[in-house]
Design goal:
Elements: H1 2-39, H2 43-48, E1 50-57, E2 64-66, H3 67-79, E3 87-95, E4 101-110, E5 113-124, E6 127-137, H4 144-165
Parallel strand pairs: 1-6
Antiparallel strand pairs: 1-2, 3-4, 4-5, 5-6
């Protein structure tokens, strides 16, 4: 009886692990296809992979795009036939226990050189969609001082404006 229980437990664990890996593979493909849609300037495919209330956080401190505004901003780039090109070179995907919500981080090869993407995906009507995405430029630690000097003036002015709003 004990052996049957151990066998059943092992089988259940393996099935759960397999289901989780399958969901991760689906999310991995979603993200690859999303990036490919931008590279191919396929506006409908790109935004079809996002939730209707998705948020895209860009590399500029002022870029906190709600989906509708991000579509309006992006449309001219897609219409010209050249949006942006991001290729994941490393990606980690995590899932909650019910496998209907996940989060990820990825290292990207882009026209801006190495960038970091991270975000949230959720299952809607049985399909994974991107709900939140954050893009940041990866800066080597030894270059942070130079970067601070480069952006110091603009950041100082933006901080003044932001503090006035609070």
């Amino acid at each position: 009886m004990k052996n049957k229980f151990l066998l059943w437990s092992l089988l259940t664990f393996c099935l759960a692990l397999s289901a989780q890996e399958s969901e991760k593979n689906i999310i991995d493909k979603l993200l690859d296809d999303w990036h490919m849609a931008a590279s191919n300037a396929d506006f409908d495919s790109y935004f079809g992979k996002m939730t209707t209330d998705a948020v895209f956080i860009g590399t500029d401190a002022t870029e906190n795009w709600q989906n509708k505004a991000f579509k309006a901003f992006s449309k001219p780039y897609f219409d010209r036939g050249k949006a942006w090109s991001f290729n994941a070179v490393e990606r980690n995907i995590y899932l909650n226990e019910t496998k209907d919500f996940g989060w990820f981080d990825e290292l990207l090869d882009t026209q801006m050189k190495l960038c970091r993407g991270s975000g949230v995906v959720k299952k809607e009507n049985g399909q994974w969609k991107i709900a939140h995405y954050v893009l940041s430029i990866a800066v080597p630690n030894e270059n942070v001082g130079e970067l601070i000097q480069l952006k110091k003036e603009k950041d100082s002015l933006l901080l003044i404006d932001l503090k006035k709003k609070n």
